[in-house]
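Blackboard transcription, Thursday session:
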Amino acid sequence: MSAGKLLVLATAVLCVAAGDVILGFGMKQVGPVNSASQLLFAVLNPWVALGIVFLIGFFASYLSALSWADLTYVLPATSIGYVLTALFSRIFLHEHVSLTRWLGIALISLAVGLVARGPVLTPTAASEPIASAGSAK
Amino acid sequence: MAIAIVVASSTAADVLTSGAMKNVGDIGELYQTQGLAVVFKRVATNTRLLSGIFFMAVSFYSLLAALSFADVSLVAPASASMTFVTDAIAARLILKENVDRRRWVCALMVCAGVALLTH
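(Written on the board underneath:)
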């Protein structure tokens, strides 16, 4: 995998973790939501808005990754983001990270390492969209 | 309940967006050969992607609702955990991806790992 593609995956991972933690922080400020309109107005909280900006960054890099890799590759590869989410929420939101959560973190990290060693794209799926995109490979 | 809605809608969103982006083609290559405008046009006018984004919005708002009454380190992983398995099944059946043993093991490991995170 090229450095550029790795960078796309890394950006996705960092953005999703930062986005989730900032969203979590914002929604704690908003408090329990009882109605749909309250939920819509939750985006006016600056932290919720900032969380959304990060999640948009995640979405852009995620879409980019999906244009050249299988869904069943991109999803496990970016799942290291959940590990970062747990770490960030421990550090910044002071949520408790128990031993079982650390075990979960270890399992996800192993899975990410495993999927990264496999093929990126199903071969038959690769030839068709590239041909229709009109670019030579 | 909120978590079930998140799982169902994000699986639909993942399958639709993945299918759409395969349809668009390699963005990196497209950008180099035809420029940013073509990339934007292809991505923004893809109806499959737009319906994927609709389901993403449904899943996002149900996630927001869940986040307001539970820990972020519980809800985000809990919904994601189940989505990994439903996504692997959907990718195999709908996107015809070659979900080999390695990918099944990875999906299940992430699912289990994420489930552990919720404890």
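Lecturer's comment: Chain B has a mean pLDDT of 83.
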